[in-house]
Specification:
The chain is an alpha+beta fold. About 30% of the residues lie in helices and about 35% in strands. It contains five helices and eight strands; from the N terminus they run H-E-E-E-E-H-E-E-E-H-H-H-E. Helix 3 runs antiparallel to helix 4. The longest helix has 13 residues. The radius of gyration is 16 Å and the shape is globular.
Length: about 170
């Protein structure tokens, strides 16, 4: 299988990674972040997906948080960070994806949402969440959040970089 992947890479050439957007959903009152199960393997991930026509990148991340986790809140327009992973396709090959991560400050957690029957969701402190996700870059972003919720509270009070999910 690796030989086939190598051959495909040589035939197709090296190209920039595809882009996805993600939301790290932060409950400021507890300092915890939300992880959800992936549909395919059940591993812990954050809500993420492809950019959407007619939406900003952070707006698309907020929409993914709603669809995949039932979360509504204030999404920051500034990226929290980026990480890369290889997205595996059903046919067995993978391609690189760069994920742009945005912080969503949770205001409402719904019991009913589009993917409620397809996923589990659970709250963790950022350091715990970092231990549970597979992607090293996402682990780094989550670890950087550990103990910094007070900084986010201060920024929210200033309301300089907080926007609704659209």
């Amino acid at each position: 299988m690796n030989a086939i992947r190598s051959s495909l890479r040589m035939l197709l050439g090296k190209r920039p990674p595809a882009m996805q957007v993600a939301a790290i959903c932060l409950d400021r009152s507890s300092g915890k972040v939300l992880l959800i199960s992936s549909r395919g393997t059940g591993r812990w991930v954050v809500p993420k997906g492809w950019p959407m026509a007619g939406r900003t990148l952070h707006g698309a991340a907020a929409q993914e948080a709603w669809e995949e986790a039932g979360i509504r809140g204030k999404i920051r327009a500034t990226e929290l960070g980026r990480y890369r992973y290889d997205k595996t396709q059903d046919v067995g090959f993978a391609f690189p994806v760069e994920v742009r991560v945005f912080l969503l400050e949770v205001e409402h957690v719904a019991d009913d949402f589009p993917e409620v029957c397809q996923r589990r969701r659970e709250w963790f402190f950022p350091g715990q969440a970092a231990e549970l996700v597979d992607e090293r870059g996402l682990q780094d972003i989550l670890r950087a959040l550990q103990g910094k919720t007070a900084c986010f509270d201060a920024a929210a009070r200033c309301n300089k970089d907080t926007h609704d999910g659209g």
